[in-house]
Amino acid sequence: MKKTFILYIFIILFSAISKAFGGEIRGIIVNKDKAVSFASVIILNTKIGTQADENGKFIIKNIPLGKQTIQVSSIGYKTKQLTINILEEKTNNLSIEIEEENAQLNEVVVTGTMKETSINESPAPIQILNPTFFRKNPTPSLFESLSMVNGVRPQLNCNVCNTGDIHINGMEGPYTMVMIDGMPIVSALSSVYGLSGIPNSMVERIEVMKGPASTLYGSEAVGGLINVITKNPSKAPKFNFDFNTSSYLENNFDASSKTKIGKFDVLFSGNYFLFNKRWDINQDNFTDITLQNRTSIFNKWSMRRSQNRVFNIAARYIYEDRFGGEMQWQKPNRGGSEVYGESIFTKRIEMLGNYQLPIDNQKITLNFSFNQHQQNSVYGSTLYLATQRIAFGQLLWDKKLNKNHDALLGLTYRHTFYDDNTPVTQTTDSKNAPDLISLPGVFAQDEVTLNNKNKLLIGLRYDYNSKHGGIATPRLNWKFTPNKDNIFRLSLGNGYRVVNLFSEDHSALTGSRKVLIANELKPERSYNANLDYQRFFTFGNGYGNIQLNGFYTYFSNKIIADYDQNPELVVYDNLKGYGISKGVALNAEFSFTSSLKIFAGATLMDVYRKENDLKINQIQTPHFTGNYAISYTLSKAQLTFDLTGNLYSPMRLPVVRAYGDTRPEYSPWFGIHNIQATKRLANGLQLYGGIKNFTNFLPKDPIFSADKPFSEQFDPSYNYAPLQAIRGFIGVRWSIF
């Protein structure tokens, strides 16, 4: 009887265990209808897993019943996770499709040719960056995020108000065009503070093109361009939010949600950034980092009509209250001469869209945008009031002539209104005279497929500037693909740029220097050559790619701001000699089956001007920059560690020797390094945290004559690194698809 009872208990326990671990999955791993051999298939949070056979098929038995998350990984493919409900019966014929990772070769880009093409087929070298990459070192805006991109360097130009611009291959911010969905939204006045107002919640991807792009995009795209592609409402998560805070008490909140209204897919996105803690670690009685209270709201409507015709329209509003200055400054001191402070109120609205005209068998698209930027600023006792409006329209005809010729024709018109309270917009008798510029243009390009290994892109643009007359910019790109693992690209181009004084150099207003325009400024011209080589390869336990790029740009009529001529002045004039920007950049990416990923880049460059046989290195431009991002994932624990950082060689800085400035003319070698851990939980929830600048690097003596802020000696432009010490951060993000 006792033995029978024990046997009965054993049968019950065996039955319960069988039910708990009775699930079975049979399936196949595929990529574009082709089987993926020997892929790894595991059930997360268990020790259960297997490897697919040479035909991509797999079987997993004894799986706990209920909802389980399956993870599939293979060399050369993106890791994929999916949740299924494991039942007592077998789950047969499960087909799991995974995507090729191979350096994003199949991702769609639009920046290089102004039409959709895969990055592999683009004749112009384009770098794609997505929010997942930027999350390795989370930041509150696009400006800080771009420090992770090799050859792209966010540069702070003022240690009081923290104005900044983006340098590409060593060329200053005015040479970089920042666009949103291909529209010239962030330019001129807005480039000084507007870059920090682009939150990550509205970004689907960022496309970076280094080298001149004036043939397609006109003035300002001389050094390169950054095209921010906003989220597609039909593909965005149903709900997404991301909140993080730091030991500096920086608080950033991003949120987005999508819905369906009639025939439209609609995306609502918002960002709020608050930093109101005053820090003065170097004890110079000035805030180390500007206080900021910023709100950004973004709304996009998208509709796909018959024959895949698309209509998109989006709008954005930004408000920011920014302050930097003496620690005791308060609002009643604004504009006064007793306590020094720089207080900037910014209001900005943007609208942009595109509409494909309903013409049979033709792809004709109308692009349009409008933005208004209003700024109310005080720099000590100097008041600066400015308004800028830019209206832009573009008509594109995308026509494939035959199998070898793919043409694009465009008509553009850009109207700029700019008004401020400075002599820049006044007549000789002190009457107000807003700056008005009309810029109609026409361009054409032909993408010529010579054979399966060679492709040419030939383009020409002609603009008529209402102040400077007609300007032509040609372009030639050649892509040579000897095999699937090697790509060569050669780019030759000509660019031009006209001046906008406020965006040229913010030191014209901050500090004590005054502006002097020595002569009537002529448009700059640039001549550029760029050679790019990219190789893809696999090895025993992973895959990778390397990209080597050489660049050379020659400038005539280069517009310079001379700090050396007189310590009380910033003197603008066209360079009587010439300017040079040249160098070489190397990018490398490696991914290992051990879940280790490495991104690394380095740029070696020489940027200078030559005048009267004298070579002068460009201010705030290091000869060497490097960046890296190293990630390692513990798959079973769903835990990822990210190590990121930058390294900079010495750069020339503006010193004020006439007033006894003894600070070094060149910065030291330095680096900024960060570490982060991310824990993925169920239902799309993630917790993350880490340490920024864990080596605790801080620049020395950033402000000259900080004890005399209203004197002619005061100068806050000696900047080469952020004034933020070591700090911790934590955050949470949640996405529902």
TrEMBL record:
Entry's Gene Ontology BP terms: siderophore transmembrane transport
Q: Provide the Gene Ontology terms for cellular component.
A: cell outer membrane
Give the location in the cell: Cell outer membrane
Alphabetized, the UniProt keywords read: Cell outer membrane, Membrane, Receptor, TonB box, Transmembrane, Transmembrane beta strand, Transport
PROSITE patterns reported in the protein's UniProt record? TONB_DEPENDENT_REC_3
All copies of domain TonB-dependent receptor-like beta-barrel, residue ranges: 279-693
Q: How does it sit in the membrane?
A: Multi-pass membrane protein
Offer an example of a GO molecular function term for this protein.
siderophore uptake transmembrane transporter activity
Q: Which Gene3D superfamilies match?
A: Carboxypeptidase-like, regulatory domain (2.60.40.1120), TonB-dependent receptor, beta-barrel domain (2.40.170.20), TonB-dependent receptor, plug domain (2.170.130.10)
Q: Which domain of life is it from?
A: Bacteria
Q: Name one Pfam family in it.
A: Plug
Q: Which residues form the TonB-dependent receptor plug domain?
A: 120-224
Q: Which family does it belong to?
A: Belongs to the TonB-dependent receptor family.
Put simply, this protein is called TonB-dependent receptor
Organism expressing this protein natively: Emticicia aquatilis
